[in-house]
Amino acid sequence: MTMKNKKWLIWAAAVLVLGIGLWYYFKKSEAVKIQLTTVKPEMGDITESITATGTIQPVDTVAVGTQVSGTLNKIYVDFNSQVKKGQLLATLEPSLLKDQALQIAGNLANAKSNLAYNQNNYNRQLQLYKVGAISKADLQVAENQNNAARSQIMSINAQLSAANKNLSYTRIYSPIDGTVLSRNVSEGQTVAASFSTPTLFSIAKDLTKMQVRASIDEADIGNVKAGQKVTFTVDAFPDLNFSGEVTEIRLHPTVSANVVNYITIINADNAELKLKPGMTANISVITSDISKVMKIPAQAVNFKPDSLVASNYTINSPYTASQKKQWTGQKSTANKEMPKGEAAVWVLATDQSISRKKIKTGTSNDTDLQVISGLSVNDNVITGYKTLTKKTTGASKSPFLPQRSSGKKPSGGGGGPR
After folding, report:
1. Spatial distance between the Cα atoms of 301 and 370, rounded to a whole number of angstroms
2. Name one Pfam family in it (predicted).
3. How far is CA 302 from the centre of its chain?
4. CA-to-CA separations, 150 to 109, 121, 160, in angstroms, rounded
5. Do the strands 380-389 and 368-373 form a parallel or antiparallel pair, or are they unpaired?
């Protein structure tokens, strides 16, 4: 063998040794340790709920208006005033309506005088007719005039009654006991009742009883029923949970941004008067509540041992190698392919091995899952894992790589290269 060939062999051997050292170093550096996250099944309650938003409003609100036009003469209440039924709230200027009533009263007096004249005339004509002095036609004319005068009095009496009634409408009274929520007018303002009744005041009957007007999506409304319990919060008191009850689901739909909603009325107690009209409520309607059942986190059925788990733990499974592959594969759909009401979870044993168990499941609220059978309260159900180390630094160093300087000067020397 020539000298040249020997040099090539030496270089090849050196490169091979260097490659093996590098491979060993990086392979060991990439060793990853994991720790499984486990929980024990526990007994507890599982509730299902739907969420929505709504507006708080009084149970009964009355809009107080006026049936006659006029100028507001005096207002006796303001915002937040407590009022009683029959209490005077405001008055309109009555002068014009008084004059109208007086005019009609004068017409009535004139009509009564006319009736007396026609009654006497009829009596005279009747006597003359009896002695044959006049014809029957003349008697009938007198009788007709008498009847017309009597009818005129009835008509003017009705006009006077209406005028007096309109005059009474100039005094506006509260129809209920309650609290004035809004005052829409001021003294001296003219209100016109020609086409529609103007609203002067809005009065809430009882602010200790409130209701939430919630909009619930058509996808959720099928699970909502009258009598279900409701919890909600408001921005003014984010740490407080208020309670209520569904009382009515209105069948008239509302459409907003192509989403169909149904108005749902929820009654709530407001004894402390913390809830104010117009507040926005964030609502949770409890559609199902199951108590004292075994439950596990819903994420447990989604766990599957991957290659990283398989490299750190022993997988015990009654399946063949090809079947095992579907449990440790990256795209496992095992639980999705199981019959409804069944699922599979992985359990960690004391010898650091994991086993797959089939369970029968019940209701779920996307957080907790009811376990009907297949587990005990002592099982360590795996929900996931966390990585302890990503690289093992300092555990193994390659002798073929240059070492990083510590930055310290060597003792007893000048510190520079010699």
Report:
1. 12
2. RND-MFP_C
3. 30
4. 12, 14, 16
5. unpaired
**DSSP state letter for 212:** E
Tokens of 388: 């302890």
Residue 183 CB neighbours (<10 A)? 18
285/269 Cα distance (integer angstroms): 16
**What residues does each domain of the chain span?**
33-44+295-389, 49-59+206-290, 62-92+171-205, 94-169
Q: Kindly write down the DSSP assignment for every residue of 45-89, as one continuous string.
A: EEEEEEEEEEEEEES-EEEEE-SS-EEEEEE---TT-EE-TT-EE
How many CA atoms, within 13 angstroms, populate the side-chain half-sphere of residue 415? 4
Task: Determine contact, residues 283/264, Cβ cutoff 8 Å.
Answer: no
- What average pLDDT is seen over the chain? 85
pTM of the model: 0.64
| Rg of the chain over all Cα atoms, to the nearest angstrom | 47
Return phi, psi of residue 218, to 5°.
-60, -25
**What's the topology of domain 49-59+206-290?**
Elongation Factor Tu (Ef-tu); domain 3 (2.40.30)
Pairing of strands 280-297, 368-373: antiparallel
Give me the phi and psi of 382, to 5 degrees please: -85, 130
Give the C-alpha separation, 130 to 361, whole Å. Answer: 108
Task: Decide if domain 33-44+295-389 falls under CATH 2.40.30.10.
Answer: no
- Residues 89-114: tens digit of each pLDDT: 999 999 999 999 999 999 999 999 99
Q: Is the pLDDT of residue 29 over 60?
A: no
Place of tokens 């004249």: 117
* CATH code assigned to 62-92+171-205: 2.40.50.100
What is the token pair recorded at 174?
Answer: 């509260």
Distance CA 398, CA 381 (A): 41
SS3 call for 114: helix
Of 373, 345, 376, 369, the C-alpha closest to 290 is: 369
C-beta separation of 402 from 29 below 8 A: no
Do the beta carbons of residue 177 and residue 205 sit within 8 Å? yes
- Tokens of residue 8, six digits: 């090539």
* pLDDT value for 224: 95
